[in-house]
C-alpha cells in the first residue's frame, strides 16, 4: 500500500504541477489578450478621432468653398452688369449662336457669311474714314488721332449687331 500512496502522491504532485503550469499559461495568455484588446481600443479611438477631425476639416473647407463660390458668382454678375462687359458677353453669345447655327442649319450659313462680310466692310470703311458720319466729324473736328483702327466705335458695333439681327430675322 505504501507503493500506492507514494505512487499516488507522485501522480497527484505531477498533476498538481501540470495544473499550475497550465494555470500560469492561461493567466499569461489572458494578460496578453487583455493588453492587446486595450491596444486595439486605443487604436480604434485614435482612428475615430482622426476621422472626426478630417470630417470637420472637410466640412469647413466645403463651407469656405461654398462661400467663395457665392462671392465669385456675385462678382461675375456685377461684372456682367457693366456696359463694356455686356457688349463682350453679347458678342460671345452671338459667336456661339453662329457656331451652333452653322452646324445645325445648313441654309443659314451662306446668308450669315454674307451678313458678316457686309458688316466687316462697313466697319473697315468707317475705320478708314470713308463713311458719311466719319467724313462730317473729321471736317468739323479736324484731323486728329486715328485710333479708330484699334478700337471699334459704338456705331460700328451697333451696325454689326443690326446686321446680325436683320440676318437672323430674315432666316
Task: Explain this structure.
The chain has 171 residues and is an all-alpha fold. The protein has two domains: 1-81; 105-171. It is built from five helices and no strands. It has helices spanning 2-80, 83-104, 108-128, 132-141, 154-170. Helix 3 runs antiparallel to helix 5 (154-170). The longest helix has 79 residues, at 2-80. The protein is rod-shaped and about 145 Å long. The model is unreliable at 145-160 and 163-171 (pLDDT under 50).
Structure at a glance:
The protein is mainly α and 171 residues long. 87% of the residues lie in helices and 0% in strands.
Write a concise keyword list for the protein shown above.
2 domains; 87% helix; 171 residues; 0% strand; rod-shaped; mainly alpha; disordered C terminus
The number of helical elements comes to: 5
Helix/strand class: mainly alpha
* Total beta strand runs: 0
In helices, the fraction of residues equals over 70%
Q: Give the terminus-to-terminus CA distance.
A: 129 Å
Mean pLDDT rating = 76
Low-confidence stretches: 145-160, 163-171
Element-by-element helix/strand order: HHHHH
Strand content: under 5%
Rg calc: 45 Å
Summarize the main sheet: none
Shape: rod-shaped
Number of domain units: 2
Amino acid at each position: 500500500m505504501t507503493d500506492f500512496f507514494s505512487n499516488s502522491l507522485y501522480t497527484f504532485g505531477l498533476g498538481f504541477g501540470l495544473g499550475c503550469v497550465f494555470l500560469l499559461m492561461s493567466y499569461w495568455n489572458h494578460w496578453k489578450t487583455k493588453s492587446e484588446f486595450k491596444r486595439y481600443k486605443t487604436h480604434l479611438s485614435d482612428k475615430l478621432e482622426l476621422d472626426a477631425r478630417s470630417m470637420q476639416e472637410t466640412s469647413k473647407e466645403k463651407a469656405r468653398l461654398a462661400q467663395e463660390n457665392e462671392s465669385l458668382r456675385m462678382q461675375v454678375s456685377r461684372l456682367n452688369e457693366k456696359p463694356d462687359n455686356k457688349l463682350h458677353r453679347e458678342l460671345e453669345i452671338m459667336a456661339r449662336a453662329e457656331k451652333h447655327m452653322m452646324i445645325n442649319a445648313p441654309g443659314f450659313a451662306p446668308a450669315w457669311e454674307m451678313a458678316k462680310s457686309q458688316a466687316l466692310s462697313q466697319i473697315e470703311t468707317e475705320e478708314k474714314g470713308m463713311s458719311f458720319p466719319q467724313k462730317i466729324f473729321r471736317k468739323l473736328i479736324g484731323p486728329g488721332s486715328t485710333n479708330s483702327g484699334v478700337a471699334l466705335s459704338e456705331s460700328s458695333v451697333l451696325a454689326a449687331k443690326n446686321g446680325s439681327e436683320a440676318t437672323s430675322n430674315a432666316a
